[in-house]
Amino acid sequence: MNAGLDELREVLAQARQEISRVIIGQKDVVEQALIVIFTNNHALIEGVPGVAKTLLTRTLAQVLGCSFNRIQFTPDLMPADITGTNVFNLQKNEFTLIRGPIFTSFLLADEINRAPAKTQSALLQAMQERKVTIDRETYDLPRNFTVFATQNPIEYEGTYPLPEAQKDRFMLKIRMLCPDRHEELELARKMLGNESPEQMLEKGAVRCVLSAENLVRMRDSLERVLVRDELVQYLVDVIRLTRAHSSVLVGAGPRATQALLLSARAYAALAGRDFVSPDEIKTMAFPVLEHRLILRPELEIEGLSVREVIQDVLENVTVPR
Q1: CB atoms within 10 A of CB 109
Q2: How far is CA 11 from the centre of its chain?
Q3: Quick one: which of 114, 135, 209, 302 is 20 to 30 A from 30 by CA?
Q4: Residue 150 in contact with residue 47, Cβ under 8 Å?
């Protein structure tokens, strides 16, 4: 590997080590979150309450030297509560911008599907352009602006389903499952002492391995990861087959092609390689496509899952040698 990729590999290894001091297990989740950050994209995190979704985002911010804000989405949340608003300053006799929580590097949009569509749409411009418009004035967001939106997979009462256009802007859907028995035992034992994950984070036990400025520079190193043309063709064929699959009502669009390509390249760098193999594409196909495909209703009723369809798609596209 060249010098730039060697440095990136070292930073990623250090980041994973520091995150593991707080987040017990969840190896795939941590790797997918790092992929989202290092490709400058956004993630939809799905998991039941208590699996450390908020803690993960806070830890990532501390390890990577970025600012962090959290928004609890509720049905009465207004767009101005996210973006901010202009308030008249009597002392200066002028309007002053009160910036909302969106002006940060890592934004946790907690239970995003609890807010109505008007409020959810306040994130769309920010996610796509990293800009916010307030009273016809446009403001730039930090270059590392990343949205981690969470939703509960089992509680849909009083929620507003995310529109397809918004879901498509999330590069990955990260599924956070409950920990294994030995991981939950480790967590329980740490809670008896002074080493609970929250305490470790508050005490500063997690070291910052990178600055926000260097994070921008590190992203350029991913361009040195080789993707052979036959693998690009394979990747495109996988995406296109989702549109023609008999079980799929709406397949993945061109943004999914970009997401799969970028995430596979980042996953290869995480694995310490300077080239992409078919395995990276197959692995990343699930988090890239799971929230983008809409199955035919009659097949969903019969119990067919999106993951089964993705697996069938991968099995029906010829893998290049």
Answers
A1: 27
A2: 19
A3: 114
A4: yes
DSSP assignment of 116-144 equals -HHHHTHHHHHHHHSEEEETTEEEEPPTT
Query: From residue 153, how far is each of 15, 66, 150 by CA, in Å?
Result: 28, 28, 9
Cα(44)–Cα(110) distance, integer angstroms: 10
Amino acid letter, 62: Q
Task: Output 266 or 220, whichever has higher pLDDT.
Answer: 266
For tokens 């921008």, the residue is: 216
Q: Are residues 34 and 168 in the same domain?
A: yes
Question: Could you tell me the maximum CA-CA distance found in the chain, to the nearest angstrom?
Answer: 70
Q: Where are the beta strands (DSSP E) in the chain?
A: 43-46, 68-72, 84-89, 94-99, 106-110, 131-134, 137-140, 146-151, 172-175, 248-250, 294-295
**12 by DSSP, 3-state: which?**
helix
The domain boundary residue, chosen from 202, 219, 236: 219
Q: Check: CB of residue 56 under 8 Å from CB of residue 26.
A: yes
The answer to whether 310 and 288 have CB atoms below 8 angstroms apart is: no
Could you tell me if 254 and 276 lie in one domain? yes
Query: How high is the pLDDT of residue 157?
Result: 64
Tokens read off for 187: 């967590």
Task: Find the domain containing 50 and state its range.
Answer: 3-219
Q: Which token pair is 137? A: 């004035």
User: What gap in Å lies between CA 158 and CA 174, rounded to an integer?
Assistant: 23
Distance CA 119, CA 124 (A): 10
Using one digit for the tens of pLDDT, what is the confidence trace for 235-293? 999 999 999 999 999 889 999 999 999 999 999 988 888 899 999 999 999 999 999 99
